[in-house]
Amino acid sequence: MSVHAPCPLCLGEGEHVVWRGPAFRLIRAADPMLPALYRVVWNTHVAEFSDLSALDRLSCMDAVVLAEQTLRATLQPDKINLASLGNVVPHLHWHVIARWGWDAYWPQSAWSAAQRPADDARLDGIREQLPVVDAAMLQAYTTRFGGA
């Protein structure tokens, strides 16, 4: 992506918006191999976490932790992966990804080559739970940050 290309996170909300507040939003990404991949996206265009004020950094990390806690409580994954890369989309966003030992990429990162074929039955089981996870996320974020 060129530095001068339009930012996709400024042009659109992202995949499935679960919650939106004045400073950031929580979206669930449309990733068929990692169905419980959420992103905390800063609403204004900043490229780096250090571009935020100290108070905004605390709020942003609180949002990331809340997504992690909610995924752990609802899906009981083996691990949560957190990442803020921004190499392809240089707009501040954090990935919060529920991971299991059976997922196609385990134990490598979500951006690595698949280590095994996808377990469609288990993936379908996670997808079936996503409305409950989204509702739990919405409730947690609304309680903590207000808005909706």
Please provide a written account of the structure.
Helix content is 35%, strand content 19%. By secondary structure, the protein is of the alpha+beta class. The protein has one domain (8-142): HIT-like (HIT family, subunit A, 2-Layer Sandwich), CATH 3.30.428. A 5-stranded antiparallel beta sheet has the order 1-2-3-5-4, with helices on one face. Helix 2 crosses helix 3. The protein is globular and about 40 Å long. It starts with 7 loop residues before the first helix and ends with a helix. The model has no long low-confidence stretch (mean pLDDT 93).
Q: Helix amount, in percent?
A: 25-40%
Overall 3D shape: globular
Helical run tally: 3
Number of strands: 5
How far is the first residue's CA from the last residue's CA?
A: 32 Å
Overall residue-averaged pLDDT value: 93
Oligomer: single chain
Given this structure, which CATH class is correct? Alpha Beta
CATH architecture: 2-Layer Sandwich
* Largest sheet entry: 5 strands, antiparallel
- Beta-strand residue percentage: 15-25%
